[in-house]
Amino acid sequence: xxxxxxxxxxxxxxxxxxxxxxxxxxxxxxxxxxxxxxxxxxxxxxxxxxxxxxxxxxxxxxxxxxxxxxxxxxxxxxxxxxxxxxxxxxxxxxxxxxxxxxxxxxxxxxxxxxxxxxxxxxxxxxxxxxxxxxxxxxxxxxxxxxxxxxxxxxxxxxxxxxxxxxxxxxxxxxxxxxxxxxxxxxxxxxxxxxxxxxxxxxxxxxxxxxxxxxxxxxxxxxxxxxxxxxxxxxxxxxxxxxxxxxxxxxxxxxxxxxxxxxxxxxxxxxxxxxxxxxxxxxxxxxxxxxxxxxxxxxxxxxxxxxxxxxxxxxxxxxxxxxxxxxxxxxxxxxxxxxxxxxxxxxxxxxx
Length: 351
Prior knowledge:
The chain is of the alpha+beta class. 72% of the residues lie in helices and 8% in strands. The protein has helices at residues 2-61, 67-88, 92-117, 121-154, 156-190, 200-217, 231-238, 240-255, 281-297, 321-337; strands at residues 221-228, 263-266, 271-277, 308-314, 343-345. A five-stranded mixed sheet has the order 2-3-1-4-5, sandwiched between helices. The longest helix has 60 residues, at 2-61. The protein is rod-shaped and about 135 Å long.
């Protein structure tokens, strides 16, 4: 089950990565959109201020003061200060220009007051000069704002990168989910869910594949079948929960004492089988006696000894999966009828 835990770990990690990437991408996109919107608002505000000042100067020179327009410019200047931190994000050069425009506007208002008191050509020229200074300042700010807006727009390429990585991770997690579902289904078919031994179906398929291999390449193999003695009595006495624990403990014990090539399966409630490839009867008997001794000497969860009875059969020419299984099963039946807690060899191969 380690594989499934690792798969779950990676799936969880990828899912969290996608979630974080989605949040980051969303926040980044939102921020960039807000920046572009603020840049556009600032450029528009500067354009209005610049045009309004030019109109105000024309009114003043024409002898038609427009205090409402002056108040509107005041509000626009204040708006610059409100959004400057958001838009320019600590850009010192533009902050200096905004402060310079604010001071220049204050100077211009004073010059306007002077012109209204004394409409001389000198004061009129001062109006024009100061308005030109403000125009230059605003023009510089518009240029810088446009540059910053272009930079913000260019940053949208990172949105495409986020989207690509998000898509890649999504495809990856879909792949892993499909693979995990496939593996889980295969595991459910191939393994006994309680003991993690191979299932009867897997055992049958494997045994059916061993027969033609043995025939073609003349390779020996043996089959050991065993079950737990008086297991029903254990269940009745201690309960099925304890019985399940014994089954799991026994399977762990058996699996940790076999070769990797051996196939150990649960083929019934308390009945098990071991296919032993590349093994003749002598080697199969050695394995069977080893397993018998391991179980007999092992301390299980109950205060009575747990034992097993075993039947052994070796493949012979002409065998199919049914015949070799029957001979091993007959040997198991003989072991149980003979008093249990022992190994018996198929009668065909007693000699």
